[in-house]
Design goal:
By secondary structure, the protein is of the alpha/beta class. The protein has 10 helices and 8 strands.
Length: 245
């Protein structure tokens, strides 16, 4: 699974054969410039999910339910989830958290909304966690993650993202359920992996989490291409005869 936020990247990922596209509320940080995912709104998610759907008309597209769209009001949560399917064309929604969220997951599944869960480091709870920190380091915390994934499966979640936990916790959670687990900083024993596309392409500036692997230095590639364009325009080389009408 790879994140997508626009039609162009969605089309490229679909062409590459990526089976799951995630319209993550990470767009708040990598696209909108916020310091966390908390400010992302439902309208933001509908806008970007619709763009991804247009870029990949037949892909399996999962859209994040943003902070505040599902935590307080069950009726509003159902309305917001159905918006992502009806207005934006998402195939499924992703909801952060276990525990009390399992009742919501069960209700959404009952009304026909496929749900992916998200445990471990849940970025919408960054203020509660005191920052982006590895979760599940203590025995109690690890056991709680395993209990939560079992509860999410029982509630009807079709898959669960496990983020930023020790590898043995990722393994234990994966072994505890039959549904697929998708790791991000959860070791090699989950059923699949997810990365944020700008991180994967080496576009993100600054220190990266340990789990990030940049497969190209995209920031340098783009910068060099733009510098070449700028230089050729200044010298008169571009546009050449082959680029003129």
């Amino acid at each position: 699974m790879v994140t997508a936020y626009d039609a162009l990247s969605a089309a490229i990922l679909d062409e590459a054969g990526i089976p799951l596209l995630l319209v993550g509320d990470s767009l708040g940080m990598v696209v909108m410039g916020h310091s966390s995912t908390v400010p992302v709104t439902m309208d933001d998610m509908v806008h970007h999910t619709a763009a991804v759907r247009r870029g990949a008309p037949t892909a399996l597209v999962v859209a994040d339910m943003p902070f505040g769209s599902f935590q307080t009001d069950m009726t509003a949560a159902k309305r917001n989830a159905t918006r992502l399917l009806k207005e934006a064309g998402a195939t499924a929604v992703k909801i952060e958290g276990g525990g009390p969220m399992t009742d919501l997951v069960a209700d959404l599944v009952r009304i026909g909304v496929p749900v992916m869960g998200h445990l471990g480091l849940t970025p919408q709870s960054v203020n509660q966690f005191g920052g982006f920190k590895v979760q599940g380091r203590t025995q109690d915390a690890a056991d709680r993650i395993v209990d939560d994934i079992v509860a999410l499966e029982a509630a009807g979640a079709f898959a669960v993202v496990i983020e930023c936990v020790p590898s043995d916790v990722g393994r234990r959670a994966t072994e505890a359920v039959d549904i697929p687990t998708i790791g991000i900083g959860a070791g090699a024993d989950t059923d699949a992996q997810v990365l944020v596309l700008p991180d994967l392409l080496g576009l993100t500036d600054g220190p990266m989490p340990r789990f990030v692997k940049a497969y190209i230095d995209g920031r340098s590639v783009i910068r060099d291409a733009v510098k070449s364009f700028q230089s050729e325009v200044a010298s008169g080389e571009y546009p050449g005869p082959e680029h003129r009408y």
